[in-house]
Write a structure and sequence with these properties.
By secondary structure, the chain is α+β, with helices and mostly antiparallel strands. The protein has a single domain, classed as Transcription Regulator spoIIAA (2-Layer Sandwich), CATH 3.30.750. The chain is 22% helix and 46% strand. A hairpin with a 2-residue loop joins β4 and β5. It starts with a strand and ends in an 11-residue tail after the last helix.
């Protein structure tokens, strides 16, 4: 997993967007991830929607988008814009785009706490007096 935290100006309170990316290396260019086979997790807290988690999985020319919100009343806000998003992604070259909007507990803890392999890396960085930050150029 590649993990990054990005400050996000929220109104009235700023928040943090967390992103985790997992994928195989591109066989033709090992410095890059294979964009045809990867997974991206985003977690943020938006004022209008509250806590939101988005999981994007690409597999060959297929794309799966899973949105998780904590409040069932927020689900329709996401559902209403999904047809346009699906159409845009299909015209971008994805053969299949599937979506799901779930109402479930969206953890307030960091994604890094939920992604096992990253927890040990963060502990080692903190123990060495470094700021836990894992970035890679894609």
């Amino acid at each position: 997993w590649i993990f990054s935290r990005i400050p996000f100006p929220g109104d009235p309170n700023p928040t943090m967007v967390e992103m985790a990316v997992k994928g195989d290396r591109d066989p033709d260019n090992p410095e890059q991830l294979d964009l045809q086979n990867m997974e991206v997790l985003l977690q943020l807290n938006l004022g209008a929607l509250g806590p939101l988690r988005v999981r994007v999985i690409s597999s060959q020319s297929n794309l799966t988008l899973r949105f998780s919100v904590h409040d069932k009343e927020k689900r329709p806000l996401i559902l209403k814009d999904l047809p346009d998003l699906v159409t845009t992604l299909q015209t971008s070259g994805f053969k299949s785009v599937s979506t799901d909007v779930r109402v479930e507990a969206v953890s307030e803890v960091s994604l890094i706490d939920e992604l096992g392999p990253l927890r040990e890396i963060e502990r080692k960085l903190k123990g060495a007096g470094q700021t836990p930050r894992l970035d890679i150029k894609l």
